[in-house]
Write a structure and sequence with these properties.
The longest helix has 43 residues, at 120-162. By secondary structure, this protein is an all-alpha fold. It contains 9 helices and no strands. It has helices at residues 11-48, 55-91, 97-112, 115-118, 120-162, 171-190, 193-220, 227-236, 243-256. The protein has one domain.
């Protein structure tokens, strides 16, 4: 760290910033990977009508995106922004240079002290979700490549056979061709079903573990009901998929107080 910043940001503080930005980078990278996966699915549906057999894939992408986006929102706005506002208010009343160092260190420690970064079990779950997001990106990319390759090969052969006829296709023929393409896409997608099921099972397991760690560490094992963690759990609970588990944990906490 160059002067004069090294007077405020020590090596120890700099390493704390590295932890924060590494976490933000990993979650943001996962978000972009999931957006690209969603775009892949949308492009397939745009070419071959709405494909009902793609619904499980779309549902999993949506659930993964909800977790990742709300993680970024919670850490960026509910933690970093609020802690920064507190620091700026305190800096407006400083008396000496030591107050600057003290308030800055207080800000960085408070930011790291939240449930996402400071708890190893919770952090591991979130990082595992970012790895699964990359796996999802690889899955949809493989599906798209396979679809494009097979569709182009099959229909280029058919068109070469029909070339001597040299007549425009009727609307019925165009519709039949699109239906044939959709059937081919469905057959290709079935090749990746086992891979999707494995990804879904891994994601459900990690998210359930994440809920359990948050509930145990920040609700059930503390005497103070942490409203911010409850809000985070509700944000994570996309379309109330984990609502029964969430209610069970909150009810157990309520019985303890």
């Amino acid at each position: 760290m160059q002067k004069p910043l090294d007077l405020i940001i020590s090596q120890r503080t700099f390493r704390k910033y590295q932890v924060i930005f590494r976490f933000l980078f990993q979650t943001k990278f996962a978000e972009r990977a999931l957006h690209a996966s969603w775009k892949d699915v949308q492009n397939i549906e745009k070419q071959f009508f709405s494909c009902s057999f793609l619904q499980p894939l779309k549902s999993l992408i949506n659930r993964m995106t909800a977790i990742v986006k709300n993680t970024i929102y919670y850490f960026s706005y509910e933690i970093l922004d609020q802690k920064q506002e507190t620091m700026l208010r305190e800096l407006a009343q400083i008396q000496n240079f030591n107050d600057v160092i003290r308030h800055h260190e207080k800000f960085i420690d408070a930011s790291l002290g939240n449930c996402l970064v400071s708890n190893e079990q919770v952090l591991e779950c979130i990082l595992n979700i970012t790895v699964l997001a990359s796996s999802m990106r690889a899955l949809t990319s493989d599906v798209v490549k396979n679809v494009e390759t097979n569709i182009n090969n099959i229909f280029s052969q058919l068109e070469s056979k029909d070339k001597p006829a040299a007549r425009p296709k009727t609307n019925q023929e165009k519709y039949a061709q699109k239906q044939n393409k959709q059937r081919i896409v469905q057959q290709i997608f079935q090749q990746y079903k086992a891979r999707l099921d494995t990804l879904k099972s891994s994601f459900d397991q990690v998210v359930t573990q994440l809920f359990q760690n948050l509930l145990n560490r920040y609700l059930l094992l503390t005497s103070k009901f942490d409203q911010s963690v409850l809000m985070l759990l509700q944000l994570f609970d996309y379309e109330e998929f984990y609502e029964p588990y969430l209610k069970m944990g909150i009810r157990a906490f309520t019985n303890l107080i």
